[in-house]
Amino acid sequence: MVQGTMSNVGKSTITLALCRYFTNKGLNVFPFKAQNISSKFVDIGDVKIASAQYFQAIACKKEPHVYMNPLLIVPRGKLEAYFLGEYVDSFDSREYMYDEKKRILEKIIDILKDLERENDLVIIEGAGSCAEPNLRDREIVNMRIAMSVQSSVVLVADISLGGAFAQVAGTMELLEGNERSLVKGFIFNKFHGDKTLLGDFPNQLAQRYSIEYFGTIPYLENKLPDEDLKVSKFGELNTLEDISAIDAEIERITEHVISNIQIQKLERILGL
User: Fold this and answer.
1) Nearest C-alpha neighbor of 104 from the set 130, 138, 68
2) Of 68, 87, 267, 269, which is most buried by a Cβ count within 10 Å?
3) What are 131-135's contacts with CB under 8 Å, separation 24+?
4) What angle do CA 202, 205, 209 make, to 5 degrees?
5) Which one, of 141, 193, 158, 133, lies nearest residue 14 by Cα?
6) Per-residue pLDDT tens for 207-228?
7) What does 90-107 look like in DSSP terms, one character per residue?
8) Looking at beta carbons, which pairs linking 172-177 to residues 24 or more positions away fall under 8 Å?
9) Cα of 111 vs its chain's centroid, Å
10) Is the Cα dihedral 27, 28, 31, 34 positive or negative?
């Protein structure tokens, strides 16, 4: 499971790269995000999934499936909820936060456990920050999902704005002991500059929490539409129909990510 220290650290991109890497190795890989709040989604038949999971499906060389994103929340003034692709209702944030999510968590976990049995590897993406004490008993996309299947967790921190060491340390400190035990290591993402300036301090941070430092990924401006941005990026692919162009961009992203992390450490943790 790929979780973040905060929003927009690059979880979707790293998940996508891992999907393609392990698919290229011959594994049957399935992407999964229990809940996605996004105004960018793709219609697949009569149902909808978030665009990030659509691209991850292509990365896995699979047809997009609603199980890849069981719960889609579209913000349109109120929150419009789609469960398994079907419109449920619209809510304000408080109604949704305290009531509706409880009703579908068990169904989401059942889907995930079925996927675990049917695939060689399920790569789960979290949302926002995984260490929010005020949401611990209500969230259905981060540690509650990881705990339900005892998944290995990789933390991703955005180092571009500074504070990445504190992001990782603060996350580890705020997690409960049983949650912390699932975290196997961390990645610094979106780095600008000379990585040698980091010295040995990422490894020292890893040692402090008995986890792995998987590496630091330099910033890459990719061409896939970003679900967190309301404006288009320069050179962004402007159609979802050109699968060959999307596929080529996925390969480029994968090469960039995998060449900048110690993927062998992750493979060893996963027993692959």
Assistant:
1) 138
2) 68
3) 131/5, 131/170, 131/171, 131/172, 131/174, 131/175, 132/174, 133/174
4) 140
5) 158
6) 999 999 999 999 999 888 776 5
7) EE-HHHIIIIIHHHHHHH
8) 172/131, 172/209, 172/211, 174/131, 174/132, 174/133, 175/130, 175/131, 175/143, 176/136
9) 17
10) negative
User: Which 3 state secondary structure label does DSSP give 249?
Assistant: helix
Per-residue pLDDT band for 239 (boundaries 50, 70, 90) equals low
Q: Are 131 and 174 in contact (CB under 8 A)?
A: yes
Determine the distance from the C-alpha atom of residue 20 to the mean position of all C-alpha atoms in its chain, rounded to a whole number: 14
Buried b (16+ CB within 10 A) or exposed e, 118-127: ebebbbbbbb
List CB contacts of 233: < 8 A, sequence separation 6 or more.
221, 222, 223, 225, 226
d(CA 108, CA 73): 14
* Interatomic CA distance for residues 173 and 46, integer angstroms: 43
- Asked if 123 contacts 15 with a C-beta cutoff of 8 angstroms, the reply is yes
Element (H, E) at 177: helix 177-180
Give phi and psi for 21, each to the nearest 5.
-60, -50
Q: For residue 4, which amino acid is it? A: G
Fill in the DSSP letter of residue 128.
Answer: S
Q: Which residues contact 271 (CB under 8 A, 6 or more apart)?
A: none
Asked which of 13-17, 102-106, 122-126, 155-159 is least confident by mean pLDDT, the reply is 102-106
